[in-house]
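Go through this chain.

——
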Amino acid sequence: MSKKGGGALRLPPPFSFDIRGRHMKRRISLGIAMGSAGLGFALIGAAPAEQAVDGDEAIYRARFAAIVKSGGIFTDYSPTEKVRGATRPSPLRVAPPQNRTVDTAALDRASAYAAAANSSAFLVWRAGALQRADYRRGVTRESQLVSKSLSKPLGAIAIGRAIALGRITSLDQPVADFIPEWRGTPKSGMSVRHLLDMRSGLLEQIVSTDPDHPINRAYIGTDHGRTLIHDYPLTHPPGTHYGYGNATAELVALVIERATGQRYADFVGREILAPIGAEGGAIWIDRPGGLAHSGCCMTLPAESWLRLAILLMKDGMAGKRRLLPAGYVDAMTRGTPQNPHYGLGVWIAGPYVERRGYTGPGGHGQQVLHSQPYADRDLFLFDGNGNQVVYVSRATRMVIARLGDAPPRSLEWDNSALPNMLIAGILRQPGEAAPAAQPR
């Protein structure tokens, strides 16, 4: 789906893709669903035959038909539920030009790159203050942005908060403690950790034109939690295989709700966003009063995503208050033998590769360019479809956020460009060393 060298990685729908698997083996036309998380393949093909349906099934069939008609683009994240943030959120402090700790020329270069890549929000925070905050394309500081798979690291933060509150005992607690329907089945070996590092063993992201396939009902169904519990297939023993998928991440909301007795939106707003002073937003739910989608598509202002990353940069501390267990961020930023570039909801530098795919080493699908090793070998990032990125460099006390439309086809996104420009532009104090770079 991509080629080594220049040129855009995104292929506009429709394009051809060879589907192979136990459910189908034929060549079909499909598109990339820019609204779905991460890999984000959408189901496209002949619309389902007309049949008499009503209620929730009619809603599901209408959603499916809309995706087919659009050529694979899904953006109708409705209904939604309010996510309350801080009661009186205040803007992050902005460093005056004379007090910036990043060179203005480096900020200008990075800003120009972000602008060329269709960014609507570009924020650089370092050592306690915003160094640059650019809003473009009609977006403001208050704008609600659909941030796609940035929801996955938020899910990992929510699990960490539940552990800190004693509602979840540890990352290694069995998921079956919260989904007793799985006790005594092969799924009983799945741990909470496996939901975050994509080693659940559940069917990974695939394409199916069958409206009754669980990959589709688990994404746009009106009771996707039931599908995940009862119908979603296990393809590998838990903990043995990396398989990126929205379905695995969607189970986080179910676990949080059963562990805490709170709605996922309420828990995230009360226990995470409010304590860090972040504005709230909205989260996609499958039906009014139904289960939240924790793998995709929460809306928040750009600054709220930045604040979440700052929380991780500070080891889970919000001021003097500890929100995440000590050492939890270190656990989030460790890869697995199955994918050394993916931790708990976040992507990590790991060993250098020029192109990294969402589906893991040797996997199919879109490959993201890294033209150079990261200038900080311990850098990690939130990474969503359309190159929604939030970089965290603990060694340099810097966080960088870029949100917006997918870059134009004439510009291939380079995941290492922004952090390397800005790390090189840090105005270091005497005796302040540069971070160790990612080994080539």
User: Anything to note?
Assistant: The longest strand covers residues 119-126.
